[in-house]
Amino acid sequence: MKNIRNIAVFALLAAAAIGQNEYVSGERIEAGNYREIDVLQLSGSATVQLRPGQEYRFRVLSTVFGRHGMFREVVAPTVWKVSDAVGVTIDETGNLKISPNVQHGTKFLVIASVTAQDPWEKEAYPRAVEQEVIVFDAKQNPLVGDWTQKWMTTCAGKKIEVDGRNGLRMLEFRADGTYAAAVAPFEAYRNYWGRYVFDPKKGTLNMTVDGGNSDLIHLKTQGSYEINNGTLTITGMQLHPNQQFLKPCKAHFTK
Question: Fewer C-beta within 10 Å: the chain N or C terminus?
Fold first, then answer.
């Protein structure tokens, strides 16, 4: 059991942000194979984001050695609880319920006490695993979600459809104030990531770059935004890391 490591809000490459869609394989780790556990987690994201009135079933996961962003479910006796939060409950199966009146921006921890004891072990060694959860209201932060660029508008007014060569296939804004962008997302791979601040009254958007896997010298991450009929339009920003010859004007995204 020495290879089981405790974790409190593990941040998988910080803002790499793979969200709640973890890459969980069909293979599970059960009694007799607990030595295969790498790092225990409850999610592939630093922060799970949920809406008021939503339910979400947590599972105990183990990272897969050598496969960043890949997980296997751990089947072991688990006691679930949540930190102090009004209107939030979790049952013995890890199913979390959030009351419809929970306020936007509410944060709390889901805590799992996992006892992974193989049959030949004389003693059990429970491990506490924590996961931060944030509740968000889409009306107060309409940027939250996974967006895909569909077209761009040049500064001369010409509409150009885009693909992975000249557009972003993924621009994810998260409720905790982080974002990640990718030309060709694969498992946990992202081109760059960071934090964002927006002003809904002024329509301004400021994205700081905290890290990345590309040459980012051509990025311009301050500009403006608007959302109309499900389309996010970002103006005055250069978000594709390889479009050094195009003047930033308007980029259009849909979910």
Answer: C
Tell whether 82 and 131 lie within a shared domain.
Answer: yes
Token pair 């079933």: residue = 57
Spatial CA neighbour of 166 closest among 246, 63, 230: 246
For 197-235, the pLDDT digits (tens) are 999 999 999 999 999 987 788 899 999 999 999 999 999
Which residues lie closer than 8 Å to 237 by C-beta, 6 or more apart?
205, 207, 220, 221, 222, 223, 248, 251
Q: Classify residue 140: in a domain, yes or no.
A: no
pTM of the model: 0.81
Q: Which of 85, 106, 135 is the last residue of a domain?
A: 135
Containing structural domain, residue 211? 145-254
- CA-closest candidate to residue 16, choices 242, 207, 182: 182
Handedness of CA 140, 145, 150, 153 (dihedral sign): positive
* 179 contacts 221 by C-beta, under 8 angstroms: no
**DSSP states of 128-152 as a string?**
EEEEEEEE--TTT-TT-EEEEEEEE
Residues 154 and 189 in one domain: yes
Q: 104, 135, 166: which is the final residue of a domain?
A: 135
